Amino acid sequence: MLVGLTGGIGSGKSAAGNFFIELGIDVVDADDLARAAIAEGTHGSELIRERFGNDILDHSQQIDRKKLRKVIFENPEEKQFVESIIHPEVANAMTDFIKNAQSSYKIVIVPLLFETDSQNMYDRVLFIDTSEELQIKRASARDGVDEANIRAIIGNQLPRNEKLKLADDIIVNNAGLDKLMQSVSQTHNFYLSLCNE
Q: Check: CATH 3.40.50.300 for 1-25+103-197?
């Protein structure tokens, strides 16, 4: 069984993913795969440098993901170009992960799962839900980004009520890590029961 785990910015997707890993489940994060696709020394990194020049690099000469995000946020053509580099690499890495995963079910964390209309690739879609206020608070504390930026990111994504309708399973993450861990554990047991049917 393949589970797609998603949620808005600051919802706690990674924390939930880590709890599933602790329970022995194979988990991969599409964001990590995207990062690896343009890491220093990759063909993807060279193509992006050629296109945007050294302005796109950070102080350690790596591609600055914040700068790149800003560029593609403002220019649909550049977004297409960057996606044409990253998406095939992510798809290949994901195929390898699915083929090699050993746990009873496996999880792929996909931040924009509904926005990319990829929910049909998964047997179940698990949505990590949280209030917008908490999303803003967590994301700004984690990324050092101001509230206006986070609201713009949220505004660019499918509305929360739509995601709630599309998800098969929902974990509400408004009450801290202990509660999240409990909810993950319950969901884990539910998924194991589905695998054993």
A: yes
